[in-house]
């Protein structure tokens, strides 16, 4: 009887794990764990999160790119060239779906564009979605993180959007923005909040949109 039971366990377990990943709190790699070196942020920049705003890096992700090096590079660039004490975003998501903590959530983010950043929680996905497509792992992590942040900070569905909804920009690229434009993203978040599998399906490429998937590693 051992063998059939083992077989059943093997058949059941991957599906169970997939469902759990969408409903349980996402794992976030703490800033201290990836070697973050933030500078002090002035108290005047403290805020209360009211909106969630999604970005892409706008830089093509290539095979072999290392998310930790990208994080350290972005932080160092901001400190050196932009006078940003810490990363411009609160969370950053790698193509394999790993979520890294950036700036602490109780400080407003930074931007290169013009909009009032107070109250915005910034989530960035690595990649350039004008030239490549996000991975399912990345979008699944984004949906799960957004669902939990919205619940934790009592952020309304109407206040969840993309950078393009806030300012004059192409960010987060047409192949990620499409899910915001169609309302699909909010539907996925609503499903995740009600512990239902959002059944994330990124669909076929857009006409005149990017076709290359982002390399997972
Ligand atoms: Zn952006």
Distinct ligands: zinc ion
**Strand elements, count:** 6
| Radius of gyration based on Cα positions | 18 Å
Unreliable runs: 6-22
Assembly form of the protein: single chain
Structure write-up:
- It is a single chain.
- Helices cover 35% and strands 11% of the residues.
- It is an alpha/beta fold.
- It has a single domain, classed as Peptidoglycan recognition protein-like (Lysozyme-like), CATH 3.40.80.
- Strands 1-4-3-5-2-6 form a 6-stranded mixed beta sheet.
- Helix 3 (136-152) crosses helix 6 (184-193).
- The termini are far apart.
- Bound molecules: zinc ion (ZN).
- The site of zinc ion has 4 residues, from loops.
Annotate the secondary structure layout.
Elements lengths: L1 H22 L4 E2 L21 E6 L10 H16 L8 E3 L5 E3 L18 E6 L10 H17 L7 E3 H4 L7 H8 L2 H10 L24
Parallel strand pairs: 1-4, 2-5, 2-6, 3-5
Antiparallel strand pairs: 3-4
The structure holds zinc ion.
The site of zinc ion has 4 residues, from loops.
Q: What descriptors fit this protein?
A:
217 residues; alpha/beta; Lysozyme-like; six-stranded mixed sheet; 6 helices; 11% strand; globular; binds zinc ion
Quick overview of this protein structure:
With 217 residues, the protein is of the alpha/beta class. It has 6 helices and 6 strands, in the order αββαβββαβααα. Helices cover 35% and strands 11% of the residues.
């Amino acid at each position: 009887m051992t063998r059939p039971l083992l077989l059943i366990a093997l058949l059941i377990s991957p599906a169970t794990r997939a469902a759990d990943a969408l409903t349980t709190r996402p794992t976030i790699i703490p800033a201290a764990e990836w070697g973050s070196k933030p500078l002090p942020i002035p108290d005047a920049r403290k805020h209360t999160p009211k909106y969630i705003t999604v970005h892409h890096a706008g830089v093509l992700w290539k095979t072999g790119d290392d998310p930790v090096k990208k994080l350290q590079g972005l932080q160092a660039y901001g400190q050196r060239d932009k006078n940003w004490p810490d990363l411009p975003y609160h969370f950053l998501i790698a193509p394999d779906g790993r979520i890294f903590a950036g700036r602490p959530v109780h400080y407003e983010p930074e931007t290169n564009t013009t909009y009032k950043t107070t109250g915005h929680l910034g989530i960035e996905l690595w990649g350039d979605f004008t030239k490549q497509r996000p991975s399912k792992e990345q979008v699944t992590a984004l949906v799960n993180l957004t669902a939990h942040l919205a619940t934790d900070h009592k952020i309304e569905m109407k206040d969840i959007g993309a950078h393009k909804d806030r300012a004059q920009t192409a960010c987060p690229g047409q192949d990620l923005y499409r899910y915001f434009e169609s309302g699909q993203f909010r539907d996925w978040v609503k499903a995740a909040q009600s512990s239902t599998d959002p059944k994330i399906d990124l669909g076929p490429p857009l006409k005149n949109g990017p076709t290359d998937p982002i390399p997972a590693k």
